[in-house]
Amino acid sequence: MPDQPPTRRERQRAQTAAEILQAARRLLAADGPAALTLRATAREVGMTAPGVCRYFPDHRALVQAVVGDLYLDLAADLEAARDADPGAPTAERFAAAARALRRWALRHRAEFGLLFGKPLADAGTTPADPAHDPAWRFGQVFLGLMTDLWRAGAVPAQEPPQPEPAWWSQLDDLREHLADPVPQPVLHLFVQVWARLYGLVALEAFGQLEFALADPEPFFEENLAQVLGLFRERQDARSAGPRSVGAGR
C-alpha cells in the first residue's frame, strides 16, 4: 500500500519546524554558537520557548537539528564539487572537494566552528546522536574518494610496519563502516591527509593564519598539491602496470 500523503496539519508542523531551524541557523551565523538557545530562537520566530519545545523538546534537540542540517548542506556542496566533472581523475575530484570544504568554511565560519570546533556539548555526532548520519554523509565524501584512489592503485596497500603501531587498532571501528576491506595502512594515510587538510582549513577559518598570511589561499594550494603528491608518489613507487590516478572511476 503506498504511503499516505502528509495531512495539512503534518505539513504545517513540518513548515513551522523548518522555520524554527532556519531561525536558529541565522542566530548561529550572526552571533555564534552561544546565541543558539531555545529562548533566542523562539524570539526570532515570534514564539514562546515552550512553543518551540513542541517541535524541539530541549536545547540538545535543537542543536542536533542544526548540526544535522549543516552537515547535509556541507555534504551537498562537497558532492557537487566532487561530481562536477565525473570523468576527471579521482585525485582531481579529491582536490575539488577539498577546495569546496575551504570555501564553505570561509563563508560559514560560525557554522564551521559549531561542527568542527564543538563548542557546545550538544553538538556531538556519536552513533547515538541524531546528527550522526548527516555527519557520516559528509565523512563519506573524502573517505569514498580515498577508497576510489586505493582501488585505482594510487594508494597501494603496503605491508604495515612491524611491529604494527598499537594505536592502529583504533582504525578498526572506521573499517567496519566501509563496504570494502580497506587495509589499515590506507586508513592510516587517510587520517594523515584529513588531519592536514582540516588543520589548514580550520587555521584559516578561525583566523589563526592572519599573523603571517594576508591571503592563505596559495599556502593552501601548495599543501593540497603536496597531499596529492602522496598519492602519485605511492603510485609511482609500485612496480605494477601504469594506471592513471583516476582509473578507478
Give short descriptive properties of this protein:
2 domains; 249 residues; mainly alpha; disordered C terminus
What does this structure look like?
The structure is a single chain. This protein is an all-alpha fold and 249 residues long. The protein has two domains: 1-57; 67-236, Tetracycline Repressor, domain 2 (Orthogonal Bundle). The protein has helices spanning 8-31, 38-45, 49-53, 59-83, 90-107, 109-117, 132-152, 172-175, 184-205, 217-236. 32% of the residues are buried.
Tell me briefly what this model is.
By secondary structure, this protein is mostly helical.
CATH topology of the largest domain: Tetracycline Repressor, domain 2
Helix and strand element order: HHHHHHHHHH
CATH homologous superfamily classification of the largest domain: Tetracycline Repressor, domain 2
Number of helices: 10
Reported CATH architecture of the largest domain: Orthogonal Bundle
Radius of gyration: 21 Å
What structural category do the secondary elements indicate?
A: mainly alpha
Tally of domains: 2
The CATH class name of the largest domain reads Mainly Alpha
Helix content: 55-70%
Mind sketching the topology for me?
Layout: H1 8-31, H2 38-45, H3 49-53, H4 59-83, H5 90-107, H6 109-117, H7 132-152, H8 172-175, H9 184-205, H10 217-236
Helix pairs in contact: 1-2, 1-4, 4-5, 4-7, 5-7, 5-9, 9-10
